[in-house]
Amino acid sequence: MSAWAVILLMWAVTYPPRLLGLMLGRVQLPPFWQAFLRFVPVSVFAALIVPEVLGSPEWARRLVGVGTAGLLYARGVGLAPGLLAGFGAYWAARLAGL
Question: For 19-58, what is each residue's pLDDT tens digit?
Fold first, then answer.
């Protein structure tokens, strides 16, 4: 298969879904779908984080970091400070031998 065919196939697979997502911004969805789509970012984030935290041999340390970051974010500290505190808590737990 030529390089141009591969590029064309990659475009055909990636461009239409992105265009559809951009066009959804102009569509007025029913209230059910608006409520449903509000939870998509949280669900995707959880699907990325949970297996990485709980599937690791050092899950206890990672859970300390995630818990710290989540608690600070929920209290309104902000995303960046919460993440930095989460990393700090993870490294503190690692240095403490947890």
Answer: 887 787 777 888 998 888 888 888 888 898 889 888 889 9
In the chain, count H helices and then E strands: 5, 0
Provide the whole-model pTM. 0.59
Q: Enter the tokens of residue 36.
A: 């449903």
How far is Cα 68 from Cα 74, in angstroms, rounded to an integer?
A: 10
What is the C-alpha to C-alpha distance for residues 67 and 87, in angstroms, rounded to an integer?
11
Q: Quote the radius of gyration of the chain (alpha carbons, Å).
A: 20
- What's the rounded Cα separation, in Å, for the pair 32 and 71? 29
Can you spell out the DSSP letters for 28-41? ---HHHHHHHHTHH
- Write the CA distances from 40 to 35, 43, 81, 98, integer angstroms: 10, 5, 24, 33
